[in-house]
Design a protein that fits this description.
seven-stranded mixed beta sheet, globular, Aminopeptidase, alpha+beta, 177 residues
């Protein structure tokens, strides 16, 4: 069973351990994951995220197993309140990859966002070459909308990205601009 919960400041050691374990798999797609990643970086990031959650400017969650083991992170960020839209992101530690944790977490965050954050649309923007993350979006039921050319900059190199979306109930799919 997979659970999500808002991050806490005392999650820093678990986040640090998971990042260090997953360096080779996560680093190509997430530049914050670098060889010198430190426990202090985990602490500093968590301080920002806990406050952001309290202020409703971002909603980042720990992904945990049924027994409470930290498996990774997921959340809603880049919130556009005017258009009721946010980015949905996720990552899981290497030892949890390929077991459905990211897919389950993406669904839980999607449902939480539509119930609690007054959003109509959630987007997942994935580097075209990140096949594992693309599979998660597809298995979670997101709709592939297309390729955004040179959308992501990773380590100074532009990459095409695939955009997926979830549309909340009650949003008007037939609306015309």
């Amino acid at each position: 069973m997979i659970h999500i919960r808002p991050y806490r400041l005392d999650d820093a050691p678990d986040v640090f351990e998971a990042v260090r374990e997953s360096m080779s798999e996560v680093r190509p797609w997430m530049p914050w994951c670098h060889p010198d990643y430190s426990l202090e970086e985990s602490r500093a990031w968590l301080e920002i995220q806990v406050l952001a959650f309290e202020q409703s400017t971002a909603y980042e969650f720990a992904i945990t197993s049924g027994d409470g083991r930290y498996l990774g992170g997921c959340g809603l960020n880049q919130i556009d309140r005017i258009n009721k839209r946010a980015n949905l992101g996720y990552w899981v530690r290497t030892s949890a990859a390929g077991k459905g944790a990211a897919t389950a977490a993406a669904k839980l965050v999607r449902d939480w966002g539509f119930r609690n954050a007054d959003l109509n649309r959630l987007e997942i923007v994935v580097a075209a070459g990140n096949t594992a993350s693309r599979r998660v979006a597809e298995k979670a039921g997101a709709t592939e909308e297309g390729v955004l050319r040179r959308r992501l900059l990773l380590y100074g190199v532009s990459h095409d990205a695939v955009v997926y979306s979830f549309i909340g109930e009650g949003s008007n799919d037939d609306a015309r601009a």
